[in-house]
Every structure is written in structure tokens, then in C-alpha cells.
Amino acid sequence: MATQTQARPIDQEKLNALLGQAVQDMGASAHAVLIVIGDRLGLYRAMADGRPVTPAELAARTRTAERYVREWLNANAAGNYVQYHPESGSYSLSPEQAFVLALDNTPFHLPGAYHMLASGMKDEEKLTEIFRTGKGFGWHEHEKGLFEGCERFFRPSYLANLTSSWIPALEGVEAKLRSGAKVADVGCGHGASTILMAQAYPKSRFFGFDYHEASIEQARQKADAAGVADRVKFDVAPAKTFPGEGYDLVTFFDCLHDMGDPTGAAAHVLRSLKPDGTWMVVEPFANDDISSNLNPIGRIYYSASTLFCVPASLSQEVGLGLGAQAGEARLRNVITSGGFTQFRRATETPFNLVFEARP
To answer: In the chain, fewer beta carbons within 10 Å around the N or the C end?
Structure first.
């Protein structure tokens, strides 16, 4: 029922600032759909060389309809995602725009994030309902675009950091991988992290596990395409029961907070490791206090956590619901409660925290 509230004075300057932010956000939200469309149709890739094209030329190049392409180009130009040249009525991508929008294997590839956002919008009615019921919503229940989008969102960060800085930050791990180690990559999704490690350390053996069967099928195909199927094996298995023992390294990339029973997962990891083994846990960057996370990166992660991470955890046994902004203190408690005695922050980026845990 609506209730009457006492009118409060309005600060016009603050109101104008809020409305200005809202206009920016509405434009960004509307444009997100166009980024997904442009990515799916190859519109950005067709402009990757930076040469100016007219709407008709781009439509012919991509076998799309010129009238839609023209409007799409203007929307991108208005958002500074495409350059407009009024003297010729043509459009182009700057080197920076091409780097983040048109090239797949860069550390800053953006379209994957927008596929995730589109998936969340498609599931909006179901997600609204779980706010009412408090029930969970499993990762596997989401619209399929989430799975491709997730891999493409996280892979650039792994490409930029995994073998160049994250693994070298772990005590003695890189030497083991170079000489030949046994590695379990848990919650591997489409296998981006597993495949990158296998490419960098050809003498080691890698086992990727994920409970989502469709993602494991994709991972197997990607391993074949990457030429590493001889040293990578993907299987369907959850974090608390993945098979094998005597692992030198177990990795969890951006997934521990999604688990219903992360402490149970930690205990199983401990049992699976060699006595001198290492568990690398990569998590979204977060400080321990909420106020320090109220910034543009925190906004992204809290929003994604609301749509995907907390619902996934609440759909499983225990349902701890850590969320993507759990912070180091809570993660330390979860991991040490699982039996690990050594825990430290090995390194970090503006987007990730990298932890090292040992028996």
C-alpha cells in the first residue's frame, strides 16, 4: 500500500547531477544492446582496419541491412565507440576502439561483458521472482548467452595476467609447471584459463572441471582448436567432489564466491593436493568494507553479483551467498575453515585479487 511521506526539500544542484547521471546511464544501457548486435553480426570486426566506410559499404561487407547499419553507426558515434567523418559521411574505428571492440585476443576485449548483461536482462522476470521468494537461481538456469559472455569477459584479464604475473607471484609454482605438474582447474567454464595455462606450460597436465555440462562440451572443442587436447582433459564435476588427487596446483578463477558451500569446496581441495601443493584462488577485487567498494568497479561487481553470483550460491546446499564483493577477510575465513593453514594475498589488479593457500 502507498503511504504518505512528509515532503523534504530538494537540492536543485544535486537533483540536476542525478538526472545527468541517469541520462548517461540510460544511453549506456540502450547502447549495450547495440554492442551485442554489432558483435554478433561482425560489424566491429569489419571495421577493424580503421579505414572509413559508409553505412552502405559496411552493410554490404557484413550482409546486413543498410538502414539499420546507418542508425547503429550513429548510435556508436554518439557514444564515442565509432568515429564519424561528416565531410565524407563515413565512419571508422580508431586504433583504441578497434583494440577493445573488434579484436578478440586482446587484454581489453569488451563485448563479452555485454553478452552477460543481455543474458541478465532476458532473465529479468525470473530474477524478480526470486527477490520475492528468496530462492536461488542456478548458473545452468540462465539464458545461454551468459556462458559465452562470461568466458569472453574474464579471458582478457587471464590473457593479460595469468602466466605473466599471477602464477609467478605464487611461491615455487611456476618452476613446477615448467618441469611438469598436475593441475586441476575447478569451475573452468569454457576452459579459457585451463587452455592458457596448457599453452604456457606444455610439460604439465591439466584437468578442467565444471558442473555445467554444456560448458564442458565447449571447453573440449576449444582445447581441440587450440591444439592442447593432448595435455588437457575436461570433465563434468562439482567443486566438492571433483576427482583426482596428488595435484601440485588447484585453481579457482572467479568462482569460489558462486558456490553454495565454499568451505566444503576448500576442504575437498585440501584433500586433493600434494602436501606441498598450492591452491590459487582468483576473486573479483573487493575491499572488506562496503564503503570502499562504492565506485565504478564495485558497481559492476555488485550488480553482477545480484544477477548471477548470489542466486547461484543460494541455489546450492548451504547457500552461503558470499557474493562477488566478499573481500579478503571473509575469503580468508572460508579457506582456513576448510583446513588450510597458510593464506596470503599473492598479487592483485584493479579487477582481481589473487590468493595463495597452502596446507
So the answer is: N
